[in-house]
Design goal:
This protein is mainly beta. The protein has one helix and 28 strands. It has one helix at residues 2-15; strands spanning 18-26, 30-38, 44-51, 58-64, 69-74, 81-89, 95-104, 107-113, 122-128, 133-140, 145-153, 175-176, 182-187, 192-198, 205-212, 219-225, 237-243, 248-257, 260-270, 282-288, 294-300, 311-316, 329-335, 341-347, 352-357, 362-369, 374-383, 390-393. The longest helix is centred in the first third of the chain and has 14 residues, at 2-15. The two termini are 24 Å apart. The chain binds 2-acetamido-2-deoxy-beta-D-glucopyranose (7 copies). One 2-acetamido-2-deoxy-beta-D-glucopyranose is lined by residues 273-274, 330. Residues 79-81, 102 line the site of one 2-acetamido-2-deoxy-beta-D-glucopyranose. Belongs to the cycloisomerase 2 family. It holds the Pfam family Lactonase. One of its GO terms (molecular function) is 6-phosphogluconolactonase activity.
Length: 395
């Protein structure tokens, strides 16, 4: 059934105009609702609406698709406080502000979680890079209203090996484990992955034993993987972690204990395969591809495809024959079509890759090869009003 489906998807792409919704965050102070029209001759991204209500430095977007509510983190670079804004995203593309709340400075990534004992609310956790803090909010997913419930602030006795970047703890990512019991927060400054147990009765986070990363590696973002056909949700779980300061990918087999998780390393390698990382490059985002067999990683400022043309690295979550999961294989580098590719999202129908090209101040969309599970050619690109850290698909 795979081949006819693919054929339909491809002929769709070339014969009809297809519209898809995108959202983008710009450090110019705007959050955008964008429309992508894919056509045979020329595909185009156009602005449906834009809002300044996220604040001065929108850094991260989180979409609740079921309720059409978009959450935007304002890193508020240089300002005393960050903020979080929720928007109702209407079908005509307009973004209607629901609520805006001040936070401690520097929020950069968030993720939803829930607790079985709390039926009428969910939660989201936020990593604050600048203020060494992890905060938690309770949220009414239907209305898009939220309030702060917890925060954890960390300190270090001295700087880490990379003194310039590791002057203090810098929580950078928020990832929920596949069983929904734990939250992982890679801390770039402290070379630690902080781990929180979610109390199933009330949703409160409890700090448990962290995972210690290589000194100076600067863990940034993480993603879990459960192999296809895996039957039990906690016996076959892997974690992949990207380290911004060492430009490396590490892989672990995860074990669940009574009060926490343990990790046994199965892989460590550079995000350029056999090549050393170009000087000045910095890995950013990591995700599992839609086919659930590859890992996609954005390499910023590496100019791997020429000046201001960075790369997406693709790895297989297995050995070269796809049989042993306790292994990871480098597949190759693919063009990002711009400079400092940071956030990305593979989605929509047919699958495409949305790219936040921070220093090109643009959002781009590339085709996605569903058979090989790799990025393809550039379909469309649009300049926005500032550096673009994040872009995601709407529906
Ligand atoms: C939010 O923070 C900003 C910057 O610190 C401040 O100017 C503003 O008054 C704060 N707003 C509220 C409602 O506290
Ligand atoms: C879009 O839809 C919303 C909700 O129906 C409405 O309030 C708004 O005025 C519409 N905006 C435009 C530009 O049509
Ligand atoms: C705003 O920043 C100040 C100074 O860092 C901090 O004390 C305060 O708690 C922050 N406000 C909020 C709502 O987090
Ligand atoms: C959540 O919001 C919806 C829509 O406004 C409202 O009907 C519901 O009562 C709210 N739930 C809680 C627990 O506040
Ligand atoms: C990397 O180097 C090894 C050993 O030299 C070689 O076997 C392998 O084919 C190389 N892989 C790539 C992707 O170039
Ligand atoms: C796993 O990877 C390691 C290092 O890349 C390699 O030496 C080993 O042969 C691989 N194992 C399998 C089963 O492919
Ligand atoms: C980046 O590299 C790709 C592949 O070589 C090429 O198609 C593209 O035109 C280059 N430049 C930009 C800005 O996308």
């Amino acid at each position: 059934m795979k081949i006819p489906q693919l054929f339909i998807a491809v002929s769709f792409l070339w014969n009809t105009a297809l519209a898809s919704r995108l959202y983008a965050a710009s450090y110019g102070g705007s959050v955008y609702s964008l429309d992508l029209k894919v056509q045979k001759e020329s595909s185009e991204i156009s602005t449906l609406s834009k809002s300044k209500d996220c604040g001065s430095s929108p850094s991260w977007l989180m979409l609740d698709k079921d309720n059409s509510v978009l959450y935007c983190l304002n890193e508020a670079i240089g300002a005393p406080n960050g903020s979080i804004t929720s928007f109702k995203s209407h079908s005509n593309g307009s973004l209607q502000t629901i609520q805006r709340l001040n936070t401690t400075a520097g929020p950069v990534m968030s993720n939803f979680y829930s607790a079985p004992g709390v039926l009428d609310r969910d939660f989201f956790a936020v990593a604050h890079y600048e203020t060494s803090t992890v905060s938690a909010y309770s949220v009414n997913r239907t209305s898009g209203h939220f309030e702060k419930v917890q925060s954890f602030t960390y300190s270090m006795t001295g700087p880490g090996p990379n003194a310039a970047r590791q002057d203090a703890p810098h929580p950078h990512g928020v990832t929920v484990d596949p069983t929904g019991q734990y939250i992982l927060v890679p801390d770039l400054g402290a070379d630690i992955v902080r781990i929180y147990y979610i109390n199933p009765m009330n949703g409160l986070l409890h700090s448990v034993n962290p995972f210690i990363a290589s000194p100076g590696s600067g863990p940034r973002h993480a993603v879990f993987w459960t192999p296809p056909g895996s039957t039990s949700s906690d016996s076959d779980v892997y974690l992949y972690l990207v380290h911004e300061l060492s430009n490396t990918l590490t892989g672990y087999r995860v074990s669940y204990k009574k009060h926490g998780m343990t990790f046994s390393q199965i892989f460590e390698g550079g995000t350029y395969g056999n090549h050393t990382a170009p000087s000045g490059s910095k890995v950013a985002e990591i995700s599992i591809t839609p086919g659930n067999n590859h890992i996609a990683i954005s390499n910023r400022l590496d100019n791997s495809f020429g000046q201001k043309n960075d790369s997406i690295a693709i790895f297989s979550c297995a050995d070269p024959h796809g049989q042993y999961f306790d292994n990871v294989t480098f597949i190759g580098l693919f063009p990002a079509y711009g400079s400092s590719v940071r956030g990305f999202d593979i989605g929509a129908t047919p699958e495409m890759m949305a790219l936040a090209l921070e220093k090109s101040q643009s959002v781009a969309v590339a085709s996605w090869n569903e058979r090989k599970e790799i990025p393809g050619s550039l379909l469309a690109k649009k300049k926005l009003d500032g550096d673009v850290p994040h872009a995601i698909w709407g529906f």
